[in-house]
Amino acid sequence: MERLYTLDEAALDRPSVVTIGVFDGVHTGHQHLIRQLVVEAHAADRLAVVVTFFPHPDVVLRGLQGRYYLTTPQQKADLLLQLGVDYVITYPFSREASQVRAADFVDVLLKNLRLNTLWVGADFAMGYKREGNLAFLTAQGEQKGFAVREIDLIVNDDEKISSSAIRQAVQAGEVEKARRWLGRGYSLAGEVIHGEGRGRQIGFPTANLRVWDEQVIPANGIYAGWGWVAGERFMAATNVGIRPTFEGATDVTVEPYLLDFDRDLYGQQIEISFEKLLRPEAKFDTIQELIDQIARDVDETRAYLQTQP
Question: Residue 221: which of 293, 146, 164 has the closest Cα?
């Protein structure tokens, strides 16, 4: 299993079954599709290949800015590889790439990936002006000797699971809904950096997490979740917000407090999941009131996570 960064890097030793898409978040709909692709590809002694994009085409073509992604490129590749994919190719998307004709892109797939079968959704389109729709690709397959299979994403709660819906849920703090659609808790990863040390001063030393500035963070609030440090998992009560009890705090930070943990984390990479919103962020009149509330948050985090798998 391998991650590549261009199609030119691929040197496949046998034909492949390929699907193409952004796959931001790698939600349960994506997982359902990828697992099927892997099973069918391997049963036919073919390689399972996912071609994904970074940056997101919406970011490039619509000029979107700010926090948009559900997963970093590395998180996404890792999640796809965990599903049994042989190759994940993170295709570098740009305005120039958007001008490539669909037929020319098909030729690249045939040459570099030894394309045997292409799996696409009914609304899929690629290439210049999205000319490479299902009908176009089917005709290309008949002409150039590969099969095209139309696939459908699964539906949950009577609606199609989508990355955009999950984005909205996370931004609203609806992390339990996001978890149902993702099949796991929404997570952020990053380096622990030095903060102002206020958590340690009040008896709850938090890790100030430097997260990617293009990844969606949950709404301000206190969350129960998990923290992973060097492969170990710990319960975590995480504050997302501006810490309004303290004067002069204006920047939104992500600060997990790892339960039953007393090691130095500075400079380490950790990952935090958000399983349940415990309460919105609030301003307290005194530091003691804040301390008492954090203690209750920690107890609620422990009680909730002890009931989870």
Answer: 293
Query: Is 237 exposed, middle or buried, given 0-12, 13-18 or 19+ CB atoms closer than 10 A?
Result: buried
Tokens representing residue 226 in the block: 């998990």
> What pLDDT, on a 0 to 100 scale, did the predictor assign at position 12?
92
- For residues 57 and 97, the answer to whether their CB atoms sit within 8 Å is no
Q: What is the pLDDT of residue 153?
A: 65
Pick the CATH number of 2-160 from 1.25.40.10, 3.30.230.10, 3.40.50.620, 1.10.287.110: 3.40.50.620
Q: What is the CA radius of gyration of the chain?
A: 22
Domain ranges, ordered by start, for the chain: 2-160, 174-305
Asked whether the beta carbons of 160 and 134 are under 8 A apart, the reply is no
Q: Two tokens at 217?
A: 């963070």
Cα–Cα distance measured from residue 228 to residue 300, given in angstroms and rounded to the nearest whole number:
20
112-145: string of b/e by CB count within 10 Å (b at 16+)? bbbbbbbbbbeebebbeeeebbeebbbebbeeee
CATH topology of domain 174-305: Elongation Factor Tu (Ef-tu); domain 3 (2.40.30)
Q: CB-hemisphere CA count at 13 Å for 40?
A: 16
How far apart are alpha carbons 98 and 53 in whole angstroms?
11
User: Sign of dihedral through CA atoms 181, 185, 190, 196?
Assistant: positive
Coil, strand, or helix at residue 92? Answer: strand
Q: Divide the 309 residues of the chain into consecutive groups of 10 and give the mean pLDDT of each group.
A: 90 94 94 94 98 93 91 96 97 93 96 96 87 95 96 66 94 97 96 79 87 96 97 96 71 93 92 97 89 95 93
90: amino acid identity, one letter: T
Question: Is the Cβ–Cβ distance between 206 and 256 less than 8 Å?
Answer: yes
In the Cβ-directed half-sphere of 297, how many Cα atoms lie within 13 Å?
27
H or E element, residue 115: strand 115-121
User: What pLDDT does residue 65 have?
Assistant: 87
Q: How far apart are CA 148 and CA 36, in angstroms?
A: 15
